[in-house]
Every structure is written in structure tokens, then in C-alpha cells.
Amino acid sequence: MTAPRNDLVRRPGEPADLVIRGARLLDPRSDLDAVRDLVVRGGQIAEFAEAGKAPKVPEAEVVEAEGLLALPAFVDPHVHLRTPGDEHEEDLETGTRAAAAGGYGAIVAMANTKPAVDSAAVLGSLRERAERDASIPVGFVANVTRGMAGEELTEMAELRDAGAVGFSDDGLPIASARVLRRALQYQLLAGGVIALHEEDPELSGQGVMHEGEVSAVLGLAGIPAVSESTAIARDCSLALYEGARVHVQHLSARASVEEITRAKQAGVQVTCEATPHHLTLTDEEVRSLDARFKMNPPLRTEDDRQALIDGLRDGTIDCVATDHAPHSLEEKEVPFEQAAMGVTGLETAFAALHTDLVIPGTIGLELLAERMTSGGEPFGIAPPTIAAGAAANVTLIDPELEWVVGEEGYESRSENSCFAGRTLTGRVLMTVAGGQVAFRQRSFAMGVAG
Ligand SMILES: [Zn+2]
Ligand SMILES: [Zn+2]
User: Fold this and answer.
1) How many Å apart are CA 90 and CA 269, to the nearest integer?
2) Domain count, the chain
């Protein structure tokens, strides 16, 4: 046995000393749902005391949190930090700050950068930058194929040793079944999950939105749902055949949920994720021809959206992922057909799902908390928990606070949010990530040392 791996990196900081007074503490994994005082000492959860009865902790900051909700900090398995290469769109500092502002305590960064993360040298320098710039712990995936060209495999074992939490060519599918099969064989030796952007490039063609009624009306080339579901079926068969483990990214269609259901029943080691935008929006939004609704996979139909919600509820879909994909204005403020694909999502994920799914009663808050904190598991990152002795990973939320997305700007360097201008209910006020205070909403008053 080797020593426990520590693949997550972040900059050093002060461990938190806090008394969070009177919040509703909710952690579905430990069956915790109670109003308590939460005491954090030296970055660790020290105890929960009956509300109002927390001991005085010298030097600790007191946070008055009556009426607020404290959840385990979220974990996002799918973030594009655009570093190295496109730092004008996002970098490790702005991306992790956006994540912390959304209540995230850890994220997994994708590897479709410039250059791509296909060597231990690129991965090593990225990890060094994260040790300087990242305000929350970040895990990096490395590429499956060199230069993401889909042909030659990277040195997967070496990349694992260099700290890769898994492998992905996200942004592109692995079109060749032969190449993916070889990658799965290497994964059995190297460890680390292979995360898959599932799409048949020949079926997607030049499509710019979901293929259906709306694309027909608009006269835009469509991406059919089967482009995704047939790729999932193929790759789950390969994973089963090789006994390997895969994580399917950003499910968007009913047919895809059905493929995952079948695969799980057949014993495939597969996990999967869905995004807040696919869970709350449909291709009807594209009628506006606003490029903020252009992403890949595309927004699909109401029937697809309902299937995703059912999948999230019954566990077919393991976790929520934002697929946070920052783009510059120049890439988005062009005709729909030419605009870049992708939307930001870190700062709005909880609020969007809380507003559109929890408040109307479609799913419970406990379920949302569970699915937003389990995203690291496919990559070997344990879900955070609110328990005495655990590292403090807590997000403090005002569940009733209404705010207009984008009104006060964004922490992200990019502003291509598909929720821009929407009034959402529920806002993250403070995030403690890996024992350190990583974010505090400007309007949220600080307490005084006790
Ligand atoms: Zn993707
Ligand atoms: Zn992505």
C-alpha cells in the first residue's frame, strides 16, 4: 500500500476559528437536521452546541446565522478554469473564487486547456500555480489522449503519480472505440476514473442546438439526442467488457438516462452527472437566439428535462456538475451559429436548482444537498460532512434571499451565464473550504471576536 494520496491542491491560508450561531445544520449523510451552534477550531469542526449555548472561544469569529442554512460545502466534478492559455476568460484565482461564491469547497478542473494537460510537466506547473492562486482545493484531471487528438494515449500511470485525479478529453469525445478500449485497460493499472464527454461527432455534425421542433422552426442545424445516448451505450459496453470504471459527463437526454439505467443494472461501474442548466431549462430558450443558451450538449426538450430530474431523484444521476465554461464576450456576442458553446455556472448552481426545483417541491433540499456534495466521489474525493472532528467544509446560505443574477457582477472573469437577469431565491453568504474561510458575501456582516 502506498501512502494516502493528496491530489487536491490550494494555496496555504489561516485555519478558521468560528462560532456559527443558530443556523439550521443539514447534512443528509449524517442524518443531521437541527438548529445548533457550530464551533470550528483550527479549521476543524469541534462541536455542535445547543443553539445559544456554544462556549466562548477566544479569538473565534462569531457569525450570527439565525434563519440561515449550513450545508456541507459542494463539490463540482466538472469545471473549466481556462488555465493555462485562456486566462483572459478565467484563471485559478477567479475560477476558485467563483466556486467559493457558489458554495463549493472543492472542484475538479478539466484538461482541455492550451496546452492541454497531457504531460506531467503541464500538470506539475498547473498544480504549482494552484498552490499559489487557488482559494479552494482543486483536483486536476489529465488528458486521455495526447493533444486531445483521440489517437495516442498519454502516459496515464505517470500522470496519476503526478497527481491527476482522473482522466478526460472533455470538450471532445473519444471517437475511436479502439482508443477508449486501450485507455480503459491502462486505467485498470493506473487507477483514476475516465470521465467521458459523450457524443458521436458524425451524428452531431455541424449542429448548434438540440435537433427537434425548435431547431426546425429556427432553421438551425441540430444535435440529435442519439448522438449522446449511442456513445454512452458503446462506452458502457466497453467499460463492462474491460471491467473498468467510467464517469459520464453532462447527461442531457432521456435516452441517455435510460442507457445509464440499463448499464447500472448490468453491473457497469459507471457514475454520471447532470448540470443545473439541463435540469432547469429547455430548447425553448433558444428561440431568443441568445448565445447564452448555447452549450454542448445542448438544452433539450421538457421531456428530457423531466427524465433528468427523475434520474437525479432516483440516483441514476449521481451528482450535479456545473460544466462551468467561461467565454469572452467576443466569443458570445456574435450570431448564434458562430458563438462559442458553453455557459458559466459555479455562482448560480445552488440558487438555480433551489429556485426551480426545491421551492416548487419537485425535489427536496436534502436530495439537492446530497447530489451537490457527491461530485468528487468518482474522482476519489470523499464528500464533505458536518461532523465533529471533520475538516470544516461548510456553506452558509440564506435560503430566502432573492437576488438578480449578474446585477452586482460576477466573481468569474466571464459573464456568459444562462441565468443572467433572472431573480433567484437562495444565496450563498459564506463558504468554508478545507478548513479555511474561502468566501464571504460583501453584504454579509462580520461578527466580532468573542
Ligand atoms: Zn463536455
Ligand atoms: Zn465541460
Assistant:
1) 33
2) 1
